[in-house]
Amino acid sequence: MWLLPALLALAASRPLARADSHWCYEIQARVFNNCLVPDQWGEDCQKDRQSPINIVTSKAKADQNLGPFSFSGYDKKKKWTVQNSGHSVMVLLGGEATIAGGGLASRYRAKQLHLHWSEVLDAGSEHSLDGDRFAMEMHIVHEKEEGTSRNEKEAQYSEDEIAVLAFLVEAGSKNEGFQPLVEALSDVPRPEMNTTMKKSISLSDLLPEEDKLGRYFRYLGSLTTPGCEEEVVWTVFEETIQLQKEQILAFSEKLYYDNRQTLKMTDNIRPLQRRGQRQVFKSQAPGQLLPLPLPALLAPTLTCLVAGFLR
């Protein structure tokens, strides 16, 4: 008779053990065996409109509605709060800066930015372009302004409640705009630690020049961390950010996943998800060549020249 209560207790304990398990990346599971790796993530993470994806640039469909963005407050300099979230480093933006345009249906407020990275300089981005990955990827996370959804039910099921601007990072020359963030890493080595940047910078200081942000890719997807809610309109920019190799490696060297500082924070990357039937779109950037063969483009010019000589 003692066996039945014991079995019931064991069965009851299993779901609780799983619920208590924290989600993690693959590299964490090698050290901490009580966490859930990406293919075990729950909530919406097993649905079919997930992120990140590989973007096949030749299959992206040009959309004339994807014009330039309007950035408001991106040039405001501030000593931002920096936090070790336990899975990344996060800069808290407070919703002061906003974006509009860019084919978005409304205005969005910038809430936070964070990064993904690796010690391997071609393995740190979550998205890939034609199978190529980059050293890092920066996500600026925006939430739709209140009142732009027609009702609460619509907001609950909206595909675009969150707008994420994704910037791919590669090794290159030293980036002075990023240096205050790099220097702040030493002050937040452990999870839940906060600090303030010692020097004021703007969001624009972190980005490529605005006139280089006309070329980008757009698709509907999800957050790349649990609960992986499928309410994100993604913008992945073609123009990369350059950081010095030492600046990139500082993220892996200064930050830790755990309070004991036993595991350095690196490879905080969700594996690629299936694109499925989703269409990826690309912007019609100013100055972009029309999809016509060279002879067709030159024909009007040659006609004018010939007419001039015959006069």
TrEMBL record:
Membrane topology recorded in Swiss-Prot or TrEMBL: Lipid-anchor; GPI-anchor
Catalytic activity: hydrogencarbonate + H(+) = CO2 + H2O
Gene3D superfamilies: Alpha carbonic anhydrase
Xref: SMART domains: Carb_anhydrase (SM01057)
Pfam families recorded: Carb_anhydrase (PF00194)
GO cellular-component term (any): plasma membrane
Subunit and partners: Interacts with SLC4A4.
UniProt-listed PANTHER family: CARBONIC ANHYDRASE (PTHR18952), CARBONIC ANHYDRASE 4 (PTHR18952:SF95)
This protein's name: Carbonic anhydrase
